[in-house]
Amino acid sequence: MTLIAVERIKLLSIRSPWWCIAAGVLVSVALAGLIAGFSDPEMLSIGLTQTTNQFGLILVMAMAALSITTEYRFGTIRATFQAVPDRGSVLLAKGVVIAFLAGITGLVTAFGSWGLAVLLSPEAQLAITTAGQWRTVAGTGLVYAIAGVFALAVATLVRQPAAATTAVIMWPLAVEALVPLIPRVGPAVEPWLPFYAANHFLFGGQDDLAVSMNAAGVLTRSDMPFGPWGGLGWFAAISAVLLVLAVIVTKRRDA
């Protein structure tokens, strides 16, 4: 049995990941349905149906954080490291499992939100016809996958369940919202914030109904230093660096 298979069984054999995934999908899709049901069809866009996926993203990140912190809390990580002395391999296997599960969750959430909006507002122009629109919907899976690795790395560094969960939730919701308010420094730093860059990948370059999209708070600045795919690359690079740092720290300290 491969290490990836072992980590998959460990993760999916407990209830909390399933609850996080189910809650994330249901809340995101339900909110998208509310938006579609109560919005003017002329003001409804594909991008707007995807703005609620942020709620699912937060819960998936919480799931990723708990996948490692609960092992530290109950001491089961020691048995894992005894069976597999190469701690880096363990974390990488966890990262693969988390990324795959989070990515699938992101795709289900994105297409579920879009599909429900199509059903509830058939008059709206919601056909996916451009590369940018496909990026907004299908790209959600990539963002979820990378965010899962981001959360796993942060949680590995922090170890404590409450602290790790708080960190991965508050960073995109509060920290990245407050940083731009810092005089002079904030606007310069804003484009390089990881989740701001991820939003640029999903919603950057979308010209359809920018007013309604901007009201939802997901549109990024027009003077970004990179394009949408560059935003995804930057987000992935930050997550990769954090994971490497987590591997190094884990190898050097006691379990």
The whole-angstrom Rg is 19 Å
- What's the total count of β strands? 0
Query: What count of helical segments does DSSP give?
Result: 12
Globally, the shape reads globular
Distance between the termini: 24 Å
Mean pLDDT, to the nearest integer, reads: 90
Structural class: mainly alpha
Order of helices and strands: HHHHHHHHHHHH
* Residues in helices, as a percent range: over 70%
Which band does the percent of strand residues land in?
A: under 5%
Reported for the largest beta sheet, the result is: none
Uncertain regions spanning at least 5 consecutive residues: 209-213
Transmembrane segments: 18-39, 51-70, 91-114, 134-155, 162-182, 229-249
Organism: Actinoalloteichus fjordicus
Keywords: Membrane, Transmembrane, Transmembrane helix
Protein name: ABC-2 family transporter protein
Summary keywords:
mainly alpha; 12 helices; membrane; transmembrane; transmembrane helix; about 260 residues
Describe this structure in words.
Keywords: Membrane, Transmembrane, Transmembrane helix. The chain crosses the membrane at residues 18-39, 51-70, 91-114, 134-155, 162-182, 229-249. It is globular, with a radius of gyration of 19 Å. Helix content is 76%, strand content 0%. It has helices at 3-12, 15-38, 46-49, 53-74, 76-83, 87-120, 131-158, 161-178, 185-189, 194-203, 210-215, 228-252. Mean pLDDT is 90; it is low at 209-213. By secondary structure, the chain is mainly alpha-helical. The chain contains twelve helices and no strands. α4 runs antiparallel to α6 (87-120).
